[in-house]
Specification:
7-stranded parallel β-sheet; globular
Length: 784
C-alpha cells in the first residue's frame, strides 16, 4: 500500500516499521540500511534496529557514501536521490511518502502511477524557517542562507503533494500562515522508542548533584546562547549542579562555548541512539531552547526516560508538553525565564519527581512510535478510496446470532476486516438493522422476514426454535456456497449452529471465535438453547486457530486448556476509521451540558441517582440527561416518575435505538458520558475494556463518570478524563463539578487518548498480521 522514500534515516525507518506492523508497507527506498548493507557498515557508523523485512528495503550505496562524507552539499545529493527514486517507483503502491527537499520528481512520478502523495516536513515552512534563522545568525554577526534552489524545490513540493505531514502545531501554523490549506495538513507528532520508557522515578538525594541535560547538535539554531546566559545567572552553587551536553558541536558555536564554559559543564559528544537512556536516566531536567524546529525528537526521548524538559514554543514540543505538568515552557530568547525554571526544579525535588513520572507516562500513553503508527495508519485509511485498496483473494464468513448493528464493536471489526478480504459475508439472525453503510465488500445474509428485538423477545419457544433451525440451515448453505477461507463465530449461540451442521460443511482453514459477552453457569437454565450452546464451547475450542476476548479477566470463564490456537486480547474499542471522520465542534461554552448514557438502559447505572441533580446548576451549567438505546417500557416509566417527582421531567430525554451513525451524531451534541456499571456479575465486573460506550465517549471528547471499584480504577484510573463515583449525591456532584471546571482540557485529552491508544486499530495490528500471513503473535495490554 505504501512506498516510503528518504535519503537518510531521519524517522523513515521508524515509520516503515510501523507500516509493516499494520500490514501496509510495500517498500522503503533509502541509501543505506544497517541490516542490509553489511559491507558498508565499516564506513557508515550507524545502527538500525527497526524490524523491516530486507526484501522491502531498496538502497543505493553510491549515494550513501557521498551523503555521509560531504555533508555541506545536501541539496546536490538529495536531487540525485530524488531522480533515482523517481526511476525506481513502480505500479502497485497506493500511497507515496517522501521527505521535503528530496521528493519533487518522485511526487510527480508517483502521481503518474496513480498514487496519493504525502510530503514529510520536519521543520517549519521553509520561508519562515529561513526568516527565523537569518535573523538569529545576524545577531551573531554571521551570514545565513538556504540555497535558493532548495527553497524553490520545496515550494513546488508543497504545492504538488496531495498532503503535507507535520509533527507539531508550530509547523502547521507556519504553513497556514503561508497560505497552505489546513485540509492539506496532517498533524502527527513523533514518538519515542518504548525501550526508553522508565516507569518509576527516584527523588534526587540531597547530596547528589543536580543534572541538567541538553541533547542534540550544538548550533546557533538551537538557541544555546540563551541557555549559556541562563546558566551564568543561575542562583545555584556551581558545586551543586552539572550540565551535560549530548551531541556534536558545530564550528559556529565553538567561540561562544569557549566564552561561557564552566568547570561543571561536561561535553559527551555524539552518543549512539540506543545508548541514550543510559545517560538520560541520570539527569534531572532537560532543556531545549531552540529557535526553530518541527518537533525536536529528543523531547519525547528525554521525557520517556523520566526527564521533564524546558522548551520554547518553537521546538514544536507544546503538542507533547503541558506546562507545569509534564514539562515547562519558556519564551524564545529568554535567559531569565530559563534560569527561573531550572531554579524551580532544583529547589522542588518532590514536585520534580511527580513531573518526571507524568513526563514518562505521557510518552507511554500518547507519544511512542506505536502511537505515531496508529495515527498514520488511520489517516491513510481515511484518505485512501476503498476500491483502491489491494485486498487478498480470500473470503470471510462472519456468523452472529444477533445483528451486527446491535454490537458496535462488530462494526469496528468489519470496517478493518474489509481491508483484508475480498468479500465478507455476515450471517445474522432474523433481526432488522438500521441501514448502516457497510464497506462495499461486506454482504449481509439474513432471513426474508426480519423482526424488531421486542417481537423476538416475546415470541414462543417453538417459534424461536424454528428461527434457530433456519439460521443453522442457512449457515450450512453459506459455507457450501462461499467456501470461506476463514470463519468468525461471534457468540456461543452461533457455536451450536455450527456444531449441528459440522459434518456436512467444508472446514475453513481458519476458525476464529470472538465472544463479546460472557455468561455465568448459574444464570443459564439447563437444557435450553443457551445451555446447549454454552456446553458446545468445549467442543469448539480444540478446533480453533484464533480465540479473542475484549477482557483479559474473562479468560477464566472459558476452557483455555483446550485451546490449540492463539489467544488475542481485542478490546471493544471503537474504530478510528469510523470516529475520526466525525469532527466534534467546540461545545465548551454551551450554557446547557448534556449528560449521556447510551446502550442497553436498565437499573444499576446510576441513572436514578443522577435525575434529582438535574434541577441544580452545577459549575454554572444547566444539565440534561439523554438516554439513548434499548429500554423496557416499565423501566422508562420508573425513570420518568422520578423526574416528575423532582420537577425535572423536561430535562430527561429518551431517544430510542437508531442507526449507529445517529448514535455518533447524538454523542457529538453531548458533553459528559456515563459508564457506571454497578452489577457484580462477571460480565459487569470485567467491563473496563469491554464496555464500548466508555471509549465511544472518549472518541467524541466526552469525559466519563464510572463506578468506583478496583477493576475500573485499575483499567481507567490513569486517564485524566475518567472520574469515579459511588453514586451518592455528594460523589456525583463532585465528579460533575470537576469535569465542568476543566472541561476544555479534559475533552481534548479524551480525544487524544482515543486517537493514540484506545482505537480498535491499536489492538487489531497483531491479529491483522496473523490473519494475513500467520505472522508472529505479540500481545499488547493497556499498560503498554
Amino acid at each position: 500500500m505504501v512506498t516510503i522514500s528518504a535519503s537518510t534515516k531521519l524517522w523513515a525507518f521508524a515509520m516503515a516499521e510501523q507500516f509493516e506492523k499494520h500490514g501496509m508497507l510495500d517498500e522503503l527506498i533509502t541509501t543505506f540500511a544497517y541490516s542490509k548493507n553489511t559491507f558498508a557498515r565499516r564506513f557508515i557508523k550507524r545502527i538500525d534496529k527497526e524490524e523491516i523485512p530486507l526484501d522491502k528495503i531498496e538502497t543505493n550505496l553510491f549515494l550513501a557514501l557521498p551523503i555521509g562524507l560531504f555533508r555541506q552539499f545536501p541539496h546536490i545529493w538529495n536531487e540525485y536521490f530524488d531522480r533515482w527514486v523517481a526511476g525506481k517507483l513502480k505500479p502497485g503502491s497506493k500511497v507515496f511518502i517522501g521527505w521535503s527537499g528530496m521528493s519533487l520528481h518522485s511526487i510527480r512520478r508517483a502521481k503518474e502511477l496513480g498514487m496519493i502523495t504525502i510530503l514529510e516536513r520536519g521543520s517549519s515552512h521553509i520561508e519562515i524557517q529561513h526568516e527565523i534563522l537569518q535573523d538569529e545568525y545576524t545577531r551573531f554577526g554571521k551570514k545565513f542562507s538556504i540555497h535558493p534552489s532548495v527553497i524553490k524545490k520545496e515550494l513546488l513540493e508543497y504545492e504538488e503533494a496531495d498532503y503535507i505531514a507535520v509533527p507539531s502545531t508550530f509547523v502547521k501554523d507556519s504553513f497556514i500562515k503561508k497560505g497552505i490549506s489546513e485540509q492539506k495538513i496532517f498533524l502527527n507528532p513523533y514518538g519515542a522508542n518504548r525501550s526508553f520508557i522508565r516507569k518509576t522515578q527516584a527523588v534526587r538525594d540531597s547530596r547528589a548533584k543536580f543534572r541538567i541535560v541538553y541533547m542534540g547538535t550544538l548550533s546557533i539554531r538551537k538557541g544555546l546562547i540563551y541557555l549559556f546566559q541562563a546558566l551564568a545567572s543561575l542562583q545555584i552553587p556551581e558545586k551543586d549542579f552539572e550540565v551535560v551536553f549530548l551531541g556534536s558541536i558545530e564550528s559556529d558555536m565553538k567561540p561562544t562555548i569557549a566564552k561561557y564554559k564552566k568547570s561543571n559543564w561536561r561535553f559527551v559528544g555524539h552518543v549512539d541512539y540506543y545508548s541514550l537512556p543510559d545517560y538520560l536516566v541520570k539527569c534531572d531536567i532537560g532543556i531545549q531552547p531552540s529557535l526553530e524546529e518541527g518537533l525536536s525528537m529528543v523531547i519525547p526521548q528525554m521525557m520517556a526516560c523520566g526527564v521533564p524538559v524546558v522548551i520554547t514554543p518553537n521546538t514544536g514540543g507544546q503538542n507533547i508538553i503541558r506546562d507545569g505538568e509534564n514539562g515547562l515552557v519558556v519564551p524564545v530568547r529568554d535567559p531569565a525565564a530559563i534560569a527561573d525554571k531550572l531554579e524551580w526544579a532544583f529547589h522542588h525535588p518532590d514536585l520534580l519527581k511527580e513531573m518526571k513520572e507524568k513526563a514518562s507516562d505521557s510518552i507511554s500513553n500518547e507519544f511512542t512510535w506505536d502511537a505515531y503508527g496508529n495515527r498514520y495508519s488511520s489517516f491513510l485509511q481515511s484518505i485512501t478510496p476503498r476500491n483502491g485498496l489491494v485486498k487478498k483473494k480470500k473470503n470471510l464468513l462472519v456468523v452472529i446470532y444477533s445483528h451486527p448493528e446491535y454490537y458496535p464493536p462488530t462494526l469496528s471489526a468489519l470496517e478493518n476486516l474489509s481491508l483484508m478480504y475480498r468479500d465478507i459475508y455476515v450471517l445474522h439472525r432474523n433481526l432488522h438493522g438500521f441501514n448502516w453503510k457497510y464497506p462495499e465488500n461486506v454482504h449481509l445474509i439474513g432471513t426474508k422476514k426480519q423482526y424488531a428485538p421486542r417481537e423476538v423477545e416475546v415470541a414462543g419457544f417453538l417459534r424461536k426454535l424454528g428461527w434457530y433451525l433456519a439460521f443453522s440451515w442457512k449457515l450450512l448453505k453459506s459455507m457450501k456456497k462461499y467456501k470461506p477461507d476463514a470463519m468468525l463465530i461471534y457468540d456461543y449461540l452461533a457455536i451450536l449452529a455450527y456444531r449441528m451442521i459440522y459434518i456436512f460443511a467444508p472446514t475453513p482453514p481458519i476458525i476464529w471465535y470472538h465472544n463479546h459477552d460472557v455468561a455465568e453457569k448459574q444464570y443459564i437454565r439447563r437444557f435450553t438453547l443457551s445451555w446447549l450452546s454454552w456446553k458446545s464451547e468445549k467442543w469448539l475450542f480444540p478446533k480453533l486457530q484464533i480465540f479473542s476476548l475484549p477482557s483479559l479477566e474473562r479468560k477464566q470463564c472459558f476452557p483455555m486448556q483446550l485451546l490449540k490456537g492463539q489467544f488475542y486480547f481485542l478490546p471493544n474499542f471503537p474504530s478510528s476509521g469510523i470516529y475520526q471522520k466525525n469532527k466534534v465542534d467546540n461545545k465548551f461554552d454551551d450554557p446547557v451540558y448534556k449528560i449521556l448514557f447510551q446502550g442497553s438502559i436498565g437499573p444499576m447505572h446510576g441513572l436514578e441517582e443522577l435525575i434529582p441533580l438535574l434541577g441544580e446548576k452545577i459549575g454554572g451549567k444547566e444539565l440534561l440527561l439523554v438516554l439513548k438505546g434499548f429500554i423496557s417500557p416499565k423501566y422508562l416509566n420508573e425513570l420518568k416518575s422520578i423526574a416528575v417527582n423532582h420537577r425535572v421531567e423536561n430535562k430527561l430525554i429518551y431517544i430510542g435505538p437508531t442507526d449507529y451513525r445517529l448514535v455518533i451524531e447524538n454523542g457529538k451534541t453531548c458533553h459528559i458520558g456515563i459508564g457506571i456499571h454497578k452489577k457484580d456479575d462477571i460480565m459487569n465486573k470485567t467491563l473496563g475494556t469491554a464496555s464500548n460506550k466508555i471509549y465511544e465517549y472518549a472518541a467524541l471528547g466526552l469525559p466519563v463518570i464510572l463506578y468506583d471499584n478496583d477493576h475500573f480504577r485499575e483499567i481507567l484510573g490513569k486517564f485524566e478524563w475518567a472520574f469515579f463515583t459511588d453514586t451518592s449525591e455528594t460523589s456525583l456532584k463532585e465528579c460533575l463539578e470537576n469535569i465542568i471546571s476543566d472541561y476544555p482540557r479534559l475533552s481534548a485529552q479524551a480525544s487524544r487518548d482515543f486517537t493514540n491508544q484506545l482505537s480498535f486499530e491499536h489492538y487489531f495490528v497483531s491479529l491483522n498480521k496473523r490473519l494475513e500471513d500467520g505472522g508472529k503473535v505479540f500481545l499488547n495490554d493497556m499498560n503498554g
